[in-house]
UniProtKB/TrEMBL annotation:
<keyword id="KW-0813">Transport</keyword>
<dbReference type="InterPro" id="IPR002553">
    <property type="entry name" value="Clathrin/coatomer_adapt-like_N"/>
</dbReference>
<dbReference type="GO" id="GO:0006886">
    <property type="term" value="P:intracellular protein transport"/>
</dbReference>
<comment type="similarity">
    <text>Belongs to the adaptor complexes large subunit family.</text>
</comment>
<dbReference type="InterPro" id="IPR011989">
    <property type="entry name" value="ARM-like"/>
</dbReference>
<keyword id="KW-0653">Protein transport</keyword>
<keyword id="KW-0472">Membrane</keyword>
<dbReference type="Pfam" id="PF01602">
    <property type="entry name" value="Adaptin_N"/>
</dbReference>
<dbReference type="InterPro" id="IPR050840">
    <property type="entry name" value="Adaptor_Complx_Large_Subunit"/>
</dbReference>
<protein>
    <recommendedName>
        <fullName>AP-1 complex subunit gamma</fullName>
    </recommendedName>
</protein>
<feature type="domain" description="GAE">
    <location>
        <begin position="673"/>
        <end position="786"/>
    </location>
</feature>
<feature type="region of interest" description="Disordered">
    <location>
        <begin position="629"/>
        <end position="661"/>
    </location>
</feature>
<dbReference type="InterPro" id="IPR017107">
    <property type="entry name" value="AP1_complex_gsu"/>
</dbReference>
<keyword id="KW-0968">Cytoplasmic vesicle</keyword>
<dbReference type="GO" id="GO:0016192">
    <property type="term" value="P:vesicle-mediated transport"/>
</dbReference>
<dbReference type="InterPro" id="IPR016024">
    <property type="entry name" value="ARM-type_fold"/>
</dbReference>
<dbReference type="InterPro" id="IPR008152">
    <property type="entry name" value="Clathrin_a/b/g-adaptin_app_Ig"/>
</dbReference>
């Protein structure tokens, strides 16, 4: 291939290469020839060589050595060379290249050129790769061109100004007056550029946004003209008059009407007109309608208009184009929380989309279906979701099961329905459920006391049918271990009774223990269930003892430990076996987590106080009350020294009194008054008292007691505490989270404090609870403890 080959011939040779090595050789030879000609004087082929180099660059080969040639061609007076030079600059240069600074002066000169096509080349290049420095230098030239009389130049200048505003936002003030004047143009290209420029200015400057809100009526008239105009072959796209300009105007109206009642009211009628008069059978019309829906949902529109927007999205769901169905469900997902009832009308169409072949559409339909679940439609919609679960692709199973569990927990009409639904999910997709499903279901079963017999029968049937689903097998083993006596009794009103013998139950558990499909955790459930049955059956205890003893030498350490401990229970502690293996109490699911000083914010200053802040001072116990008690025993008149844990002064030596001698006869019993109970919080009928129970040299135990004097129960009670970093804090689990009304009960929580440095103790307690459907949160600060508390 000779060096003077034309571009078309070079493309033909490169495409004819049979191997990558042959293609590389052709390109290397051509690049070498191009370099050689670049070093020569002007021979009339520079533009052709640069064009070939640009094609090489498009194939991914290095072409950086042509950057300076681009600069030379841009400075050329010939239009054909200038055109190739600007094209090369847009492809080979960017703002990080030093060579880009060399073309600034050429661009400035070309922006004042007499030919509109040369000006257009300079505008396109500046809008493509102009750096911040170039934008600052050439901004006055662009502002001048925005006011030119040539529409061809003005539309390109408007788009160049958009690039400048993105690069240097402070230039927006320079272009604002010119952008406002462009809205009066008739040329659609200029209007499109003006709307894009105004959109960019409004998004970046709140003051400019307020200024352009005054032009909303003008934009509304412009949009009405496009909607109601007749056929125009110059702007018509599939029966829609300039849909590109319509979409841009609607997007600008959305920005101008957001959080503004006046602007929103001015465009409500227009949006209704666009929504009703635009044909959605073509893609262009669907694009305009979709932008209309987004605008309606983002501004302060009327309720009827929002329903109309949701109905448009509902029509999109019936479209044959999957892309349109996808964006429809994406939009419905965003508004389902605010317009739930309007979206609910299209529930049937949304559920039908679960059968779509496209994975993305199916995923969106699933998310939207789960968002539509409510207490009213839980039964019907759950049937559809369970049907979808049986045939959904593997990548959606985990998300589907998680959504079904959450919906069932929130809206279950009954506990039996809740249990049946979870068991159905475990049977269908038990391998894809979350790890917490098993403990959650066990907690649900324990609370449904009247359904224990029904549940254990149903789980036993599921166990003997299939033992491959580990989560289901674990729950079944747990239930059989807890309620095996109900299973053996065979009396169940909710389901058809099945006569089950002790051997049948033990055979099922032994099958789980011996199955290769059982995980170590499942075997642990089965072994524990077998052990528990030893107190619930009468004739097969020896068989249970034999099964347990076998696993005393199991290779799995966890299973071996269980078996060894159960064997010890049989041999050494058989008298305690019935008490140890009795039924588990009801599991309290809502136990708040522990909070220590570090997690609560590290230091007291970091915990934001609320309006309620009290300083608590412990009262000192008067010593004469104790002395009066000792006087009854014939004690002397010497004063009695109170216990150090409550005294406000340093303790002194004990007095040798008759009272003291009498107490010595009782084994050194100390007469210590009851610890003081101090009210630290009292509001909304809730009273919180603090009491110091025990105290050591560096530690102290504090009990917080909450009572309720209102007519209704206080729910959701949580207490959090924060102490200085030098103090260690541990909060035990509370006795509950519901305070009965009328003072009929109380909730207590123990706090352990460790103060190794014996610093001045401060503690801040945050109280959170729900009273009469309103959430209350307050903070109290305890700044003063007994002096003996360090």
């Amino acid at each position: 291939m000779s060096p003077s080959v034309r571009l078309q011939e070079m493309i033909r040779v490169i495409r004819g290469a049979r191997t990558q090595g042959e293609e590389r050789g052709v390109i290397q030879r051509e690049c070498a020839a191009i370099r050689a000609q670049f070093r020569q004087a002007d021979n009339g082929t520079r533009s052709h060589n640069l064009a070939k180099l640009l094609y090489v660059h498009m194939l991914g080969y290095p072409a950086h050595f042509g950057q300076m040639e681009c600069v030379r061609l841009i400075a050329s007076p010939r239009y054909n060379e200038k055109r190739v030079g600007y094209l090369g600059a847009m492809m080979l240069l960017d703002e990080k290249q030093d060579a880009s600074l060399l073309i600034t002066n050429s661009i400035k000169n070309d922006l004042s050129h007499s030919s509109q096509y040369v000006q257009s080349l300079a505008l396109c290049t500046l809008a493509c790769m102009g750096s911040a420095e170039m934008c600052r230098d050439l901004a006055p030239e662009i502002d001048r061109l925005l006011r030119a009389s040539n529409s061809y130049i003005k539309k390109k200048a408007a788009l160049c100004a958009v690039h400048m505003v993105r690069k240097v936002p402070e230039l927006g003030e320079l272009f604002t007056p010119a952008a406002r004047s462009l809205l009066s143009e008739k040329n659609h290209g200029v209007l499109h550029g003006a709307v894009v420029l105004i959109t960019e200015l409004c998004e970046r400057n709140p003051d400019t946004l307020e200024q352009f809100r005054k032009v909303v009526p003008e934009l509304v008239l412009m949009m009405k003209g496009l909607v109601m105009s007749g056929y125009s072959p110059e702007h018509n796209v599939a029966g829609i008059s300039d849909p590109f300009l319509q979409v841009r105007i609607l997007r600008l109206l959305r920005i101008l009407g957001r959080n503004n009642d006046t602007a929103s009211d001015a465009m409500n009628d227009l949006l209704a007109q666009v929504a009703t008069n635009t044909d959605s059978s073509k893609t262009a019309g669907s694009a305009v309608l979709y932008e209309t829906v987004l605008t309606v949902m983002d501004i302060k529109s009327e309720s009827g208009l929002r329903v109309l927007a949701v109905n448009i999205l509902g029509r999109f769901l019936l479209n044959n184009d999957r892309n349109i169905r996808y964006i429809s469900m994406t939009s419905l997902q965003k508004i389902v929380q605010t317009d739930h009832n309007a979206v609910q009308r299209h529930r049937g169409t949304i559920v039908d989309c679960l059968k779509d072949q496209d994975a993305s559409v199916k995923r969106r339909a699933l998310e939207l279906s789960l968002a539509l679940v409510s207490a009213v439609n839980i039964r019907s919609l759950m049937k559809e979701l369970l049907l979808f679960l049986s045939s959904c692709p593997p990548e959606l199973r985990a998300h589907t099961t998680s959504g079904i569990f959450n919906a069932a927990e929130r809206y279950a009409p009954s506990q039996r329905w809740h249990i049946d639904t979870i068991l159905h999910v475990l049977t269908t997709a038990g391998g894809d459920v979350r790890d917490e499903t098993v403990p959650n279901l066990i907690q649900l079963i324990t609370t449904a006391t009247e359904l224990h017999c029904y549940t254990v029968h149903k789980l036993y049937r599921a166990l003997i049918t299939d033992i491959s689903v580990q989560s289901l097998v674990q729950v079944a083993c747990w239930c059989i271990g807890e309620y095996g006596d109900l299973l053996l009794r065979g009396e169940c009103e909710e389901t058809e009774p099945v006569q089950v013998t002790e051997d049948d139950v033990l055979d099922a558990l032994e099958t789980v223990l011996q199955s290769h499909m059982s995980s170590p955790a499942t075997r642990g459930f089965a072994l524990t269930a077998t052990m528990k049955l030893s107190t619930r059956i009468t004739h097969n205890v020896d068989r249970i003892r034999s099964i347990v003893s076998i696993y005393g030498s199991c290779i799995d350490v966890e299973l071996q430990q269980r078996a060894v401990e159960y064997n010890a229970l049989f041999k050494k502690y058989d008298h305690m076996r019935a008490a140890v293996l009795e039924r588990m109490p009801v599991i309290d699911k809502s136990s708040p987590g522990h909070t220590n000083g570090e997690s609560a914010g590290g230091t007291i200053k970091e915990l934001e106080p609320t309006k309620l802040t009290q300083e608590i001072v412990f009262p000192q116990e008067p010593s004469n009350q104790v002395c009066d008690l000792l006087d009854l025993l014939g004690g002397s008149g010497e004063p009695f020294q109170p216990s150090p844990s409550l005294s406000s002064t340093a303790p002194g030596p004990a007095s040798s009194t008759a009272g003291g001698d009498l107490l010595d006869l009782l084994g050194g019993l100390d007469v210590t008054p009851a610890p003081p109970s101090v009210t630290v919080y009292e509001k909304n009928g809730v009273t919180l008292k603090l009491q110091t129970d025990t105290q050591t040299d560096t530690g102290m135990t504090v009990t917080l007691t909450a009572t309720n004097s209102t007519d209704g129960d206080i729910t959701g009670l949580t207490l959090q505490a924060a102490v200085p970093k030098s103090v260690q804090l541990q909060m035990k689990a509370p006795s509950g989270d519901v305070i009965p009304a009328h003072g009929l009960g109380q909730v207590t929580q123990t706090v352990l404090l460790n103060n190794p440095n014996k610093v001045s103790l401060k503690i801040r307690v945050r109280v959170c609870y729900t009273s009469q459907s309103s959430v209350c949160q307050d903070t109290v600060q305890i700044d003063s403890f007994p002096s003996t508390a360090w």
